[in-house]
């Protein structure tokens, strides 16, 4: 799909391409599949996040394979997703990286931990220097610590999500206009990403809303807190009118459940409050109060977006599986495009092709910035409403609540400068 397509043509292509059944996945291709290694939490506290990623990537791969796979110098080949369970641990992630390379995977996919991503970047840098004949590239769909495309930027690493500072700026564009807001509580998971969220929240609040008092500033262990009631009690006792959090997975769901139980009725400004149980956990108390930033939301008001979301729901009809990310689809489209340009998966050629990725799907376009390998794409901010309210045709996870888009941020507006000093082969 290109921008030259008319809206009608683009909508038709979306419907036809996205609805391709999985049974077509191997049609019309030959040769060994190109193995993509998913290194993610597939068991333990964050297994739901890992499985959600696997669904997104599997659907994207099915779509590529349904149209004949990817073109290489030796002919058309399909893509195949190989699952490696890191159990949410950095050491296990390194073991899974070695296993993936030994199995012949030359593309690594990971995202649900910036700490894991940083370890993988370092390990891949060293591996690629030590074993040039088995080099790999790393595609990151969710690890958003800004350092990964700044101080730790790597020729082998590509980030397809907006980093935390970009997401914070999008949220701040809404907070800036909330003139009734006078006090806010900051809480996040105690690791590199959560620390970056709170650091940037303090900086941007100081610049744009110095009148807002920060009445709480707290980090908690990742994935180990089973009872968030003590945290919720402190939030309510602080008198905060709103909470800003980068929490994700069960750490977000349990936090908002606890806040609801203690009667906190303020706003939640979130990075990930739009899925994985959070809307259902908050329930009616979240209407008009839970704000989320994302690269895309199901209620983006275009026919192309609606067709994309309907196709996902057709492929995964169980409402519990409702966690679709357009950026993950764009990532696989970018990979397929780059493999075609590079003629295969030789890592240097593939990385150079990925530096020029320019892909469109469902009416949204994203382009890779070569200087730091940070994907540039539009962002949206949504507020939780009842399904059926104006602007909310779709709910989330069968909860009866969806997110109405209240702010669209263009790729140019979302862009931020980088301090990357990339070493290239």
List the helices and strands and how they pair.
Elements: H1 7-18, E1 34-40, H2 47-66, E2 70-72, E3 75-77, E4 79-85, H3 90-102, E5 107-110, H4 114-130, E6 137-140, E7 157-159, H5 164-175, E8 183-189, H6 192-208, E9 213-220, H7 229-237, E10 242-245, H8 250-261, E11 267-270, H9 278-282, E12 290-294, H10 303-315, H11 326-342, H12 347-354, E13 358-361, E14 364-369, E15 374-376, E16 379-386, E17 401-409, H13 411-414
Parallel strand pairs: 1-4, 1-5, 5-6, 6-7, 8-9, 8-10, 10-11, 11-12
Antiparallel strand pairs: 2-3, 12-16, 13-14, 14-15, 16-17
Helix pairs in contact: 1-10, 2-11, 3-4, 5-6, 7-8, 11-12
Alpha-carbon distance between the two ends: 32 Å
Sheet with most strands: strand arrangement:
9-8-10-11-12-16-17
Total number of strands: 17
State the shape. Answer: globular
Average pLDDT, rounded to a whole number, is 91
Radius of gyration: 21 Å
Structural class determined from secondary elements: alpha/beta
Features:
425 residues, alpha/beta, Rossmann fold, 2 domains, five-stranded parallel β-sheet, 17 strands, globular, Branched-chain amino acid ABC transporter substrate-binding protein, signal, BCAA_transport
């Amino acid at each position: 799909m290109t921008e030259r397509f008319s809206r009608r043509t683009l909508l038709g292509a979306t419907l036809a391409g996205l609805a391709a059944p999985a049974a077509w996945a191997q049609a019309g291709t030959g040769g060994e599949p190109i193995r993509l290694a998913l290194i993610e939490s597939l068991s333990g506290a964050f297994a739901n996040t890992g499985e959600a990623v696997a669904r997104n990537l599997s659907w994207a791969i099915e779509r590529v394979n349904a149209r004949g796979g990817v073109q290489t110098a030796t002919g058309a080949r399909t893509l195949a997703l190989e699952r490696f369970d890191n159990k949410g641990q950095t050491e296990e992630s390194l073991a899974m990286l070695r296993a993936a390379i030994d199995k012949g995977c030359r593309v690594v996919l990971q995202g649900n931990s910036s700490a894991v991503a940083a370890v993988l970047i370092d390990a891949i840098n060293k591996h690629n220097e030590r074993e040039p004949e088995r080099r790999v590239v790393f595609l990151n769909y969710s690890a958003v610590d800004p350092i990964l495309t700044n101080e730790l930027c790597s020729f082998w690493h590509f980030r397809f999500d907006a980093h935390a500072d970009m997401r914070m700026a999008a949220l701040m564009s809404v907070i800036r206009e909330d003139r009734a807001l006078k006090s806010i509580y900051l809480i996040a998971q105690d690791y590199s990403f959560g620390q970056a969220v709170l650091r940037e929240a303090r900086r941007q609040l100081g610049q744009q809303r110095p009148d807002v008092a920060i009445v709480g500033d707290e980090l908690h262990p990742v994935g180990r807190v089973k009872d968030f009631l003590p945290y919720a009690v402190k939030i309510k006792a602080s008198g905060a009118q709103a909470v800003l959090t980068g929490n994700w997975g069960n750490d977000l769901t349990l936090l908002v459940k606890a806040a609801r139980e203690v009667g906190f009725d303020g706003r939640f400004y979130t990075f990930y409050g739009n899925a994985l149980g959070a809307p259902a956990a908050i329930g009616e108390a979240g209407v008009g109060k839970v704000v989320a930033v994302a690269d895309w939301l199901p209620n983006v008001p275009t026919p192309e977006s609606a067709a994309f979301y309907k196709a996902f729901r057709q492929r995964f009809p169980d409402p519990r599986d409702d966690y679709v990310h357009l950026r993950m689809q764009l990532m696989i489209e970018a990979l397929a495009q780059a493999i075609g340009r590079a003629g295969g998966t030789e890592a240097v050629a593939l990385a150079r092709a990925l530096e020029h990725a320019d892909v469109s799907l469902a009416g949204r376009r994203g382009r890779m910035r070569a200087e730091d390998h940070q994907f540039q794409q539009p962002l949206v901010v949504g507020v939780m409403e009842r399904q059926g309210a104006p602007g909310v045709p779709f709910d989330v996870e069968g909860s009866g609540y969806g997110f109405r888009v209240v702010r669209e941020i263009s790729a140019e507006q979302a862009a931020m400068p980088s301090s990357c000093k990339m070493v290239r082969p």
